[in-house]
Amino acid sequence: MPGILCEHCTGFCCRYLALPIDEPETKREFDDVRWYLMHENVSVFVEDGDWYINIATTCRHLRPDNMCGVYETRPHICREYSTENCDYHSGDYGWDAHFLCPEHLEEYQRQLARDNREAATKKRKRRARAGVKVKKGRYVRKTRKPVFDYAGMVTDIARVPLPVLPTVDSLAGKMPAPPTGRAPAAPSREGSAAPANERRSQKRNRALATTNGRG
To answer: Quick check: is 105 in a domain?
Structure first.
């Protein structure tokens, strides 16, 4: 392009101002942005994830030839402009979204709701494949029930030491011998009566010997 770029400029950058705003997240915040868009010469755009309100209004120092009337004392924000980011030949801004009226924002909200539902569905499917059950809107992960080794526990849940129980080996020497399986034979009547008869016989013999000695 021959000559100076500013000679061909239409002063587009001097005909609007853009201010950053918070990204709407709630229904009330989206309604506030909708209120902005109800006004004439107001639009909202999203660039690199940041939201801006754009107000189309002409700088009062823009001359009829589209040159700056206060160029030597222009504000700092004007001084940051250069031919590299000039609106005259920048073409497509590459905005993420551009809302010119409330209907544009409402369509964006519907699309956002659809995307959120699809993302939630995919998330539930991934959790289901990973072994997670959904119960009353909450995710419950499947877990194995813990297996406790009660025989090897030395403390209870409160970390109190448990009494040490004797083992079978330690009680082996103190326990009586187990029965052999056969009951002992009962003593016979003859065996038990023999000593008594023998004592009576000895007593009778001593009595006879005493009598013979006296006679």
So the answer is: no
